[in-house]
Amino acid sequence: MISKTLSSWYSGSNKLERLWLLAKIEFKLRYYENKLGLFWALLKPILDICIYYVVFNIIMQQGIPAFASYLFIGLILFNFFIESTSGTIAILNAKKYLYEYSNMNKLEIYISTLMSNVIGFTFNFIMFMVFYNFLEPQSIGLSIQNFWIVPIFANLFIMALGVSLILSNIYIIAKDITQIWQVFSTVLMFISPLFYKLSSFKAALPSFDYANPLAGIIINARRVMMQGLQPDYELMIFDYGYAFLFLFVGLILLNKLGSKAAEKL
Description:
Layout: H1 2-10, H2 15-30, H3 39-59, H4 67-86, H5 91-94, H6 96-100, H7 106-135, H8 149-173, H9 177-190, H10 198-204, H11 208-211, H12 213-226, H13 233-256, H14 261-264
Helix pairs in contact: 2-7, 3-4, 4-7, 4-8, 4-12, 8-12, 8-13, 12-13
């Protein structure tokens, strides 16, 4: 079943060109009617960081070195995951015309949507690099270990794709999944090490960095970007395991439920 989905996706021509075109269109349409346009893609994470910085570093006094940068890298990774998953829950309904009236494979629709989020993430990541390396007084500067962010982000992308497939196919038979995921996303934000010292997080939730794959990705991203260290390989293996498990389950659901999406939605 899964091989059928993947083979039908690979069989066409100009896949990458079409995916990139769809991603760019999706990204531009997202901000088309806003007065500030694409500037919102940069402004939102900055506003989030300002709010959380005041709450957790000034009021609650977490005492984390380079806290603004610590928060910055965690939030842009977390926001990419939440935007990618929440924004695709109803995708088979919203973009029914693409797979009903064209030869587009459903998997392409998911990937192009996530790629549009990658564009936004890239802008934010560049801002993080500029801020951390040129404005952050406690920065250790650039390091060869920074390149590890590529496989770490690939891990996040695969996991977001898998969870998107699962949620959107459950939506076909249970539309309540939208509200359930909104609540779970809030819970996920507070059980991930976004605002807390890593030592406090591990003390409060022992081994939870292995139980929560998003936590592991954030921890490893900070290791390679802010500490000049290699990632925790054991943690990365666990996170990739979660990502491919979610993707496997998502592809199964796409074959079982997604094939009936047009008639059920």
